[in-house]
Amino acid sequence: MQDRQQHRTGRLLLVFLQDAGVLTTRYAMPLATPEIESWESLAAALPRGQRLVFRVGGTSFGLFSNDDIVMALDPGLRDFEVDEARSDIEIEVSWTDKLELPADEPLFTSGGLWSLFAERGGYDFYFSTSFLGKSPYKAAWFDPKFRRGKLVLFRPYFDPAKPICPLEYPLDELLMIHRLACGEGVETHAVGIVDDAGRGHLFLGHSGAGKSTTARLWRSQSNAHILSDDRIILRAHDGRIWMYGTPWHGDAGIASPGCAPLSRVYLLEHSSKTEFVGLAPGRAAAELFARSFVPHHSQEGLQFTLRFLDRIAREIPCSIFRFLPDKSAVEAICRESA
Predict the structure, then answer these.
(1) What b-and-e string marks burial along 142-176, b requiring 16 or more CB atoms within 10 Å of the CB?
(2) Do residues 196 and 246 share a domain?
(3) How many domains does the chain have?
(4) Fewer Cβ close by (within 10 Å): the C or N end of the chain?
(5) Is the pTM of this model over 0.90?
(6) Phi and psi dihedrals of 34, rounded to 5?
(7) Alpha-carbon distance 312 to 288, whole Å?
(8) Count of helices and strands (H, E) across the chain
(9) What would the pLDDT profile of 11-47 be if each residue is shown by its tens digit?
(10) Which of 168, 199, 331 lies closest to 265 in space, CA to CA?
């Protein structure tokens, strides 16, 4: 994730003012937060201009603010925008004039833009960049189940006259990953393709394994629908495993809010010939885990993810797919699933 964080830093800085100021005191956040019903009622009562909602992987995210913040969705999220009065995750956005990193040791440090701390009965994400100095430019607190949150923006870094994307990457994806780990599903490093029969095919791979190549090969299939060329969410629904598109695309730039029942799982490998090698459930679960995005600091999240991936490996046929980067790869998948 770090490489994409660095890639977006330049775009992020476009909304910052030249004078970052000096920070000395942490922002104040109440120890107690409203009950869920009151929180949702407050968000639902706000006019549309003060509220944004998008849905990814079957989970809706609501942003609302009573401050003079001109909010906008990241361009990658606009196809995922929905009009809902209540959301699965409600996030209050506000300004702060004081913000600094905690003195405690973090639960996790990304090595890039963000660090995670356990604070006030929940989790705090802090976002910093060396371009601005040691002080964070924003922080976001969430309750343990990631149902509600409070996001603060350090006012001197932003131009209040310009639209601001409060959940700009990587926070949007981090929030998704942590919510899924609360017993809902998992995000995988994969391409998701829906064939003309409505069957979902998941092509797993690390960077360079051939995900973008696979997506481009399937673009020529008029009856196929590509959900994403880099990130796919898996969830259980009505007794079946489903796969969902995400806005976090790869080199091919393909992202769709669609979904489909998962039919087969393939582990991508470049080869001089096209062939399938079946995987036993134990091996398949391990390969799935190696290509999944999991909050490693959370024991409960890890345990749920391992159980969920074991279920997928036992219910869905999984195989290594060795392929040539030409139309024969698409033809082989069509024959295999016929």
Answers:
(1) bbeebbbbbbbbbbbbbeeeeebbbbbbbbbbbbb
(2) yes
(3) 2
(4) C
(5) no
(6) -60, 155
(7) 9
(8) 7, 17
(9) 333 232 222 222 223 333 433 344 545 545 555 554 4
(10) 199
